[in-house]
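ok trying again, last paste got cut off:
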Amino acid sequence: MVTFFNLVKSYPALTREWSQNNIDNKLSNQIKRLTTSLPLSETLKKDLITDLKNKLRLTKQKLKENEPEELVIKLSGDEVICKYQNQDDEDVKLELAIQLPADYPFSFITVNLRTKAGIDVKQERSWILKLSMLLNKSNESDILSAIKKWKELIDLEFAGIEACAICYSVVDSSGSKQKPNIHCKQCKHKFHAKCLYKWFQTSHN
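nice, full thing came through this time. structure:
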């Protein structure tokens, strides 16, 4: 059981994919009930929240006095409240609630809108989707890193720079330092050539 716990903790995204796509529903539900009753999921969530608290404490210590904060993160039980305000446009405000599921990591972390100002429905949906993808698709069990990466993407959007719609990075992580240069006429997004090739190779659609 210790080995299983460590695997689930180290690879949450792979665990979720395995339980949802590689085993039948009956076995998947049995595993979810087991991990909830042990309580493995509750321990994992507590570890995540504790890690986030410690990192937030260190982040606040590094901030200079009276330094404006574009991103404010607060905790409320299993919920993480994320407030974003663009310093170049004070009318743009967004507050999101990140909710850890009872059977984490077998179900997805959800992102819900609490309040917004200065953004349209398309931007709202796009920004929520980006944060959800960063939280759920990575095996890095680090909520703060996902939120900071999300903020970088929003800042780049305001600067007129579009990140790759697959890896959510501007510069190709393979080392070539290539920017997204393939534009899809249908979805209007840009992609790195290597990301698109890898997606075609692994996609079942």
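cool. The mean pLDDT is 82. The beta strands are 71-76, 79-85, 93-99, 110-117, 182-183, 190-191.
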